[in-house]
Amino acid sequence: MFGKILNTFFTRVLTAILMFLVVIINTNTFGAEGTGTIALVILGLTLLQVLSNFVGGSTLVYLTPQKNNFQILFLSYIWSLVSNVAGVFVFDALHLIPHEYVWHLMGLTLVYSVFYIHISIMQGKEDIKLYNCYQLTQVLLLILSLSGAIAYHKMQGLSTDITLYLYAFLFSYLVPALCSCIYIAKRIGQPTFTGMGALLKEMFQLGFWTQLANLTQLLTYRLNYYLIGGFIGRKPLGIYELGSKLSEAVWIFPKSLCLIQYARIANNHEEEYAKKLTLNMLKVVFIFSMVAILVLLVLPASFIAWVFGPEFINSKPVICSLLPGIVFLSCHAILSHHFAGFGKYWINTIGSVIGLAVTAGLGFALIPRISATNIPLALQTAGWISSTAYLASLIYTLICFFRMTSVQARDFMITRSDLAMV
Fold first, then answer.
1. Is-contact 386 332, C-beta < 8 A?
2. CB distance 385 to 358 below 8 Å
3. Which of 234, 298, 306, 378 qualifies as a cystine partner to 370, CB 3.0-4.6 A?
4. Sign of CA dihedral 58, 290, 136, 152
5. Which residues contact 72 (CB under 8 A, 6 or more apart)?
6. Radius of gyration of the chain from Cα atoms?
7. Total Cβ atoms within 10 A of residue 1
């Protein structure tokens, strides 16, 4: 297991470094307003994927070892096509996505769905190294195609806008999605439609709680994007987006552990094993997150402006306001994957709803009012609202973990052996 964690962690680190370079390219090429527009498009894409994953998504990891893989894939493909096409037009009508990029988003979301359906099957079969390889390939293709397109346009004296990024993004998912078809074709088994209706019902039941939790969780830490974009503008949103991206870099290691944890618990339902695994990972994640946020705290605002452009000097206060929440959310992720491994998705849903309620209540009450007089303070307030929401979700999931596993408070004490694991 340690080898898989190490492989996943280094893949995540390398991926984060490459995405860091992509962010630098975007901020210096498209500016704060362009960065804000990209954030809205990608947020729309993410919301569409939540809808698409009501039949599929992370439940594929849970069901792949147990059910007919052909039926799982077939149902996931059909639902993905219907939900994505309908979702794009609904989101456009509700002004949740920039209207000028509707058709770009249509292509992005369909290709993105196929890619993640395929690598979810890999994760369910515990082919973690291959899963990591595809993730890394996607990011490599993104940075190579994006930097190449921008360089070409500048050499030809052509204007650059965010469509370059969107086309590069599409290309980076299309190639590995097509290549992964070979892996899928060899492992889906004998095609059969017998019992598919019952499987669809089961997938939707599991997916409903999973994606309702994901939807509320996504809105918990991204609802502020709509509030900032709507009440302040896309340029301030670009500044907030950069602050969020830099803060969320801390999630690299927790996400790596969650990937292994979920697959392990889903394939081994021994409660005592799962409890010890979750406690160990929770302690390691807490220690790592505390060290990581200290590094970000000492990062000078002048350095941020030098790397990403002078428009982004006000991102440092946003980072500071988000850092406590990053620790809370990292720990919450470990606990929520414990429940997901046992199919108890409703616990995560309730925790996410609590966080969303805090975000919506404080966000609508404070951000419009403060932004009218002090935009930098409004951005920082948005960060503190997110941190408060993450804490609320963590408290609820901790209570559920205590009740489900009968752990004692002393079990959370960090020992020398825990420090040695770090």
1. no
2. yes
3. 378
4. positive
5. 56, 60, 63, 64, 121, 199, 203
6. 21
7. 11
For residues 59-68, one letter each, b for 16 or more C-beta atoms within 10 angstroms of the residue's C-beta and e for the rest, the string is bbbbbbeebb
Tokens of 249: 């870099």
Six-digit token pair at 227?
A: 């509030």
Task: Decide: 168 and 26 in contact? Cβ < 8 Å.
Answer: no
Q: What is the pTM of this model?
A: 0.81
Which one-letter amino acid corresponds to residue 345?
A: Y
CA of residue 1 relative to chain centroid, distance: 23
Cβ neighbors of 335 (< 8 A, separation 6 or more) are: 278, 282, 394, 397, 398, 400, 401
Torsion of CA 165, 256, 243, 148, to 10 degrees: -20
CA pair distance 400, 413, nearest whole angstrom? 18
